[in-house]
Design brief:
With 339 residues, the protein is of the alpha+beta class. It is built from nine helices and 20 strands. The strands form seven sheets. The chain has a six-stranded mixed beta sheet with strand order 6-1-5-16-19-20. The protein has a four-stranded antiparallel beta sheet with strand order 9-8-10-11, with helices on one face. Strands 2-3 form a two-stranded antiparallel sheet. The longest helix is centred in the middle third of the chain and has 26 residues.
Length: 339
């Protein structure tokens, strides 16, 4: 063989060795890529993403898709190199996504808690927009509670001895007026029906005065139940799209006009929309799924502008009201604010 042939063969063998070695050599990097999207008006894994019980949901059309980012850990050298040059991936140091002082279990628990909290905020924001009031709701009963068999989780507490209670602090202040062991008349609502029960109060464990032996929360109450059912998704960024999905199902307006709309953004119980991470990848996911409109939190507009895929219209939103206004403007043929 000629020297040129030997050199070529050696070069090929070196490249093969590098490729094989690179495919087995782990690096301390992780990758993010466009994840699946879910239509909040539709179903996933055989069940409705947003389920309504206690009333018949409205007929909906079009899409209101929430978007996600997929994370790939334990990259090898070649995968990291491919990701660096790919337009639909983001390769970052592993500690950015997996802080070294937190276990994978802790990170998963935090993501799950954020997702659950975003659902609660979405329901509260939607019910608030529909005009349903905040009430004191029984969450659970203490062990040995005097309210056992008289109150149950989901009941509201409306009055104590005929006096209205309008907040948790107000309920506590009313109960402090009575000594433990005092019989109290409690007016509550269960499944939309008012009822009155008699409860002999107990001693409060952390303050003076009487107690009912229940844990309560202050939340929006409607004559129907909203449940969000979506597994294997974490983080708070689906809040806005959940809220819009709920309103489309129980409100009076068709929010999509048959269009494929996607979006992202946190939401608080008062309807304020907040920034999220990974928006370039979420826009790619939305466009791949078929979306033509994408709702962008105003704080993410600078990052989103210039990275939007062809055919995807970016709409800037700051709150639930601004998102609803933008959708109405689209429905009537106008031009809502863009990023």
């Amino acid at each position: 063989m000629s020297r040129r042939t030997v050199t070529l063969i050696v070069g090929v063998l070196v490249l093969i060795a590098l490729a094989v070695g690179g495919a087995q050599l782990p690096v301390q990097y992780a990758a993010e890529a466009p994840g699946p999207t879910f239509n909040t008006l539709g179903s996933a894994n055989g069940q409705q993403v947003i389920a309504i019980s206690g009333r018949t949901p409205a007929k909906t059309s079009g899409n209101l898709n929430m978007t996600t980012v997929s994370v790939y850990d334990h990259l090898d050298l070649l995968s990291a190199l491919r990701g660096w040059f790919a337009s639909d991936q983001s390769v970052v140091p592993r500690e950015v996504l997996f802080p070294p002082n937190e276990t994978s279990t802790q990170i998963q628990q935090q993501n799950t808690q954020e997702f659950t909290s975003s659902q609660d905020s979405a329901i509260a924001a939607a019910l608030g927009k529909l005009g349903y009031p905040n009430k004191i709701v029984v969450v659970k009963l203490q062990k040995g509670s005097p309210a056992a068999k008289r109150l149950a989780p989901g009941d509201t507490i409306d009055r104590i001895n005929g006096t209205s209670v309008s907040s948790v602090a107000n309920l506590t202040a009313n109960l402090k007026k009575f000594s433990p062991g005092t019989p109290l008349t409690v007016t509550s609502t269960r499944n939309g029906h008012a009822r009155t029960v008699r409860i002999v109060s107990t001693k409060a464990p952390d303050r003076s005065g009487a107690a009912l032996g229940v844990f309560v929360s202050y939340q929006r109450v409607a004559p129907f139940k909203v449940s969000i059912r979506l597994a294997d998704v974490g983080g708070p960024s689906a809040g806005l799209m959940f809220t819009l999905g709920i309103l489309d199902k129980v409100g009076k307006d068709n929010l999509t006009d048959g269009k494929f709309i996607a979006g992202t953004g946190t939401i608080d119980p008062n309807g304020k929309v907040g920034a999220i991470g990974g928006i370039p990848l979420k826009m790619i996911a939305a466009r791949r799924a078929g979306a033509t409109v994408f709702l962008v939190p105003a704080e993410n507009c600078a990052e989103a502008a210039g990275h939007d895929p062809a055919g995807l219209r970016l709409i800037k939103v700051t709150s639930l009201d601004s998102a609803l206004s933008a959708l109405h403007t689209l429905h009537t043929g106008g031009s809502p604010p863009r990023c």
